[in-house]
Every structure is written in C-alpha cells, then in structure tokens.
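ingest -> validate -> predict -> emit
validate: passed (alphabet ok, no gaps, 140 aa)
predict: started
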Amino acid sequence: MHNSFLATNKTKAPFIWGLFIYLFFSLTSFALDGKTLFYKYNCSSCHAPDRRVVGPSFLEISKRYGQSQKAIETVAKLIIKPKPEHWPGMAYMPPFDIPFEEAKALAKYVLIDSIKELKNKKNEKKEDVEDIIDEAEQFH
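emit:
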C-alpha cells in the first residue's frame, strides 16, 4: 500500500508544479501591466496621457525621454526617486517605494503603451467621423 501511495503522488507532482508555475507567471505578468500599475498607484491623480494635470502629460514625458529601453530605465528610476529640477514649474512628485520591475512596467506604459493607445483612439475617431460623413448620402 505504501508503494501505491508514492506512485499516485509522483504522477500528481508534475501537474501541481505546472499549475504553480502557470499561476505564478500569470499573476506576475498581471502585476507588471503598466496600465494596471498606473491605476494601482493612483498616478492618474497627477498625470494623464494627453494633457497636463498636476504633472506633465505622458506625451511630454515621452517627447523628453524617448521610447528606448534606456529611456524606460531612466524614467523607472525617476518614478522611484523623482528629480523635481527636471520639470521646473510642476508640482513635486513624491518618491515611490516600488520594485524596479514595476517602475519599468509603469515607465513603459508612460513612454510607449499610453501613446499607442492615444494614436489608436485618434484613428478610431477619424473612422467614426468618416462613417458619419458619407458624401454619397448627403443632399446636394
């Protein structure tokens, strides 16, 4: 009986490890989604992708730092330890005591993903207007 118990548990072990690994990476990737972190850390109280709120817009930040991997790392460091002298005339941004990987995910959202979202919204609006304004349907 003892041997059959071990045999049964040995066949379940790979499944359990597989499930554990799947859940770990699923939750980790969810936690590192920049947009999710943007709302989790309440960044929207001071920032917006397309306009100044209290701090600079993401468009302004992206124009200043670019969209390279080096820019993502630079902005991630500034999220953790801001330098107010980089944005004179703006409100002071408090330091965020968050893991560097989360700061990088946030920085990627700020510099790249939010800008892509803005471009997609702009294109959707153009399509909506083109659907409404149909020359063939207009009275002349």
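The chain has a mean pLDDT of 81.
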